[in-house]
Amino acid sequence: MTTRNKEKISPLGEKKPLHYPGQSLDDALDSLRFDIIGCYLASLVALFLAGNEWYRWYLKTPPQPAVFTIIAVLVLFYSIKKGQPLIRKRTALVQGRDGERLLGQYLEELRARGFHVLHDLNSGRGNVDHLLIGEKGVFTIETKTITKPRKHAEIHYDGRSLTVEGFPPTQEPILQARAESTWVKEKLKTLTGKDFPVKAVVIYLGWWVNGDQHNDVWVLNAKAFSKFLEKETAQIKADDVELAYAQLSNYVRTIDQASFPRS
Question: Domain containing 163: what range?
Fold first, then answer.
């Protein structure tokens, strides 16, 4: 009896791949791409209809070019007005995604130093860009990829708040990072029954960061983070490191399974 017609399954079985850096931004970019295409597709349709009416007028068939031209101009104006902010938003998302990927590639190199790395953890209220788990602790990392001047670009952090070129940031990165570390700490407690030391970190790519780092949140650039990590002492037993990584990895896969159930 042939087995050719039997149901086929994936060779990967039930195991799902972990997230890659910037995956949630990729999803947002895909959604935004369709919005942009829709805006300009509507303009092309309107222009086509107007051109068709002018063609009919040229052939002496009963035309209504004025009506369709007005419609085309209105649709074109609307598309440009709506499309330009979408394009600016997409540019910002691309920059953010590339920053997360760049930092993610750097963090992957820390596996050789005994760290486990997870990317793009969905907390239900947002996402944790990167997570490091090792004997030196658990580190939640929020990536910031913002434009900067060509001259010396500086961020000052006083241990409570920060300024970017002398101005407060448009978002609240300290509160965001603190919320992410709290969520990870609570999630680990739920999954393992153990308390893990979790450090919140904000990394500004390409910026010079100075100030007080003796607080519950580090604000650094990537190079400084590596140096700070080297100075940390071991806080977690090797077995607990593996436990934390296994439980969080399984959690990520479970969330993905729930979001995208098998058909």
Answer: 114-259
